Each structure stands twice: as C-alpha cells, then as structure tokens.
Amino acid sequence: VRLEKELRLALEQQQFFLVYQPVVSLTNGRVEKFEALLRWHQPGQGVQSPGHFIAVAELTGLIVPIGYWVIEAACGFVQRQMQTGRTVKPVAVNLSVCQLREASFAEKVQALLARLKVPPELLELEITESMLMENVDLAMVLIENLKRLGIRISIDDFGTGYSSLSQLRQLPVNALKIDRSFIRELETSPVDQQMVEAITAMVHKLGLRVVAEGIETEQQMWLLRDIGCDHGQGFLFARPLALEQALQYRGHDA
Ligand code: G
Ligand code: G
Ligand code: MN
Ligand code: NA
Asked: Residue 254 domain-assigned?
C-alpha cells in the first residue's frame, strides 16, 4: 500500500526516467535501435530497477499510466535524436500485459505519436512470449492493429514461454529476442548453442530478425555471429545509458 502511494507520487513528481541500451548489428556493429528501460529515482532510496516495483504497478493498475509515460518519454528521445540531424534510430519499449488489455491502447498510442510528430516506424513495442501465450487470440488482434498503424513489434524473452511454431507463424511481428538465459553459458554449453541455432534458423524461415540478449563476452558475440543471429544487446556493447550518453553513442556507425 505504501509502495502504491509512492508510485502514484512518483508519476506526479516526475521521479521516473528512462535509460537506453543500444541493440547493434552483429555483422557490422552499427546501432540498430535502443531499448528504453524504466528507472525510478525513489527519494531517499536511490535508483530502483523495475524488478522492485513493476509487480506492484501491475497489480494496482498504475502500470497503465506509467506505461503511457514511458512511451511518451521514449518518443521524447526520438525527438531529441531528430534534432541532432543524424540518422534516427528506433526506440523499443517494454509492455506489461495490463496495458494490452485496455481496449483503446492502439488508438491512444497512435494519438500520442501524432501529437508528438514521431513516425510510427520509430517506435517498437516489446511483448514477452509469456504475455502472448496468456491470450493468443487477443494478442493477435492487438498486434495486427498496432502493425497497421506502422508500429513495430518484437517478442521479448523468447524461449521462456511456450509458443508453438504455428502460433508464431501467424503473428505479424518484426523481431524476436532470444532470452538471456540461452546466452549466459553459450561458450561452454553445446546444448544452448544448438538451441540458439535452431531458434535462429526457425525465426529466419519466418522472415524475422533475431536479437540475442545479454551478450557479455566477445566469445559469445563471435559464436552468435557465426550462428547467424542478426542483432545483439548486452553489457559487451553498452550498459543501459542515460539519455545524453545514448544520444552520443555511435557504436560502429560512421
Ligand atoms: O532494466 P532491468 O534489467 O532492471 O529490467 C528488468 C525488467 O523490467 C526487464 O524484464 C524489463 O523488460 C522490464 N522493464 C524495463 N522497463 C520497463 C517498462 O518500461 N515497462 C515494463 N512493463 N517493463 C519494463
Ligand atoms: O526482459 P528484458 O529483455 O526487457 O530485460 C532487459 C534487462 O536486461 C535490462 O534490465 C538490462 O539491464 C538487462 N541486461 C541488458 N544487457 C545485459 C547483460 O549483458 N547482462 C545482464 N546480466 N543483464 C543485461
Ligand atoms: Mn525487453
Ligand atoms: Na528479455
């Protein structure tokens, strides 16, 4: 109950902020996009990660207004990039299942993009595999609506849920992110290597891009590159960066 009050106050008093982690091409090192990650500057407690408060935000429904704040702030990052005159990279935002349950979600996001003059292709929404599986039919309709608006969709934490090939085949998503748990012991685990190979081959057959999460070592990066993963994200490239740092982050971009 106290946390709920504090979260309400956090929203009113602008205590939330976003950090941005680059997703890079494993073939040429260029920045493909940034993933926006929520942080809370809790007074007297320092900076909190979503692990500490997302569950309460979801239970209380506060994740809905917080979620719109996140999308708006991520669009602000895109606007800042547009002002630099350099190539603008898309921004990906994580969603909670409660946000998708709101019937007007797609319309509201569309209105927000229009108001902020951000092209829909520059926004990507990350939906976890387990969220998809909670209600496949609803997720399908929603994803189709969002796609029609030009917004990109990716499946997060892939490999931890239980989607079937036929379900994946029907989903109009752009990319799939292989969960960090498959990458962590990649160097020493032939089973994990085979899993990642199989997922990559399958996802490529569906015409989608594959992103590997949680890359921490060069060896992991080379293995993933050989396997044919398209993009990578992880501490090896960059930790989640503050807005100003993210604006300056170039990776191998010219
Ligand atoms: O950034 P960090 O590793 O602490 O994130 C922990 C988890 O919180 C991740 O699973 C991430 O997807 C989730 N998360 C980060 N930002 C947001 C957000 O804005 N909304 C939601 N719903 N989840 C987020
Ligand atoms: O569930 P999701 O994929 O949205 O989680 C993203 C989270 O993963 C972020 O909170 C981010 O801090 C964390 N993360 C990103 N790269 C790495 C990494 O290389 N290693 C570890 N351990 N965590 C990472
Ligand atoms: Mn994510
Ligand atoms: Na993930």
From this structure: no
pLDDT of 252 reads 86
Give the pTM: 0.97
Q: How far apart are CA 124 and CA 94, in angstroms?
A: 9
Residue recorded with tokens 């800042």: 80
CATH number assigned to the domain comprising residue 205? 3.20.20.450
Is 181 inside a domain boundary? yes
Output the pLDDT for position 217: 98
CA 8 to ligand 3 center in whole angstroms:
24
Tens of pLDDT along 169-188?
888 899 999 999 999 999 99
**In this structure, is residue 253 part of a structural domain?**
no
| Residue 55: alpha-carbon gap to chain centroid | 18
| 73 within 8 A of 18, measured Cβ to Cβ | yes
* Ligand 2 atom nearest to CA at 49: 10
In a domain, 35, yes or no: yes
Task: Give me ligand 2 centre to Cα 114, in Å.
Answer: 30
The counts of H helices and E strands in the chain are 11, 9
pLDDT in tens, 33-56: 999 999 999 999 999 999 999 999
Domain range for 154: 2-248
Mutation probe of ligand 1 site: the residue of 52, 91, 93, 94 with most atoms within 8 A of C-beta: 94
Interface predicted TM-score of the whole assembly (ipTM), two decimals: 0.96
Residues touching ligand 1 (Cβ under 6 Å) are 37-38, 49-51, 54, 70, 94-96
Q: What's the number of domains the chain is made of?
A: 1
Measured CA distances, 199 to 94, 194, 223, 254 (Å): 22, 9, 14, 31
Can you give the pLDDT at residue 17?
98
Q: With a cut of 50, list the residues of the chain below it in pLDDT.
A: none
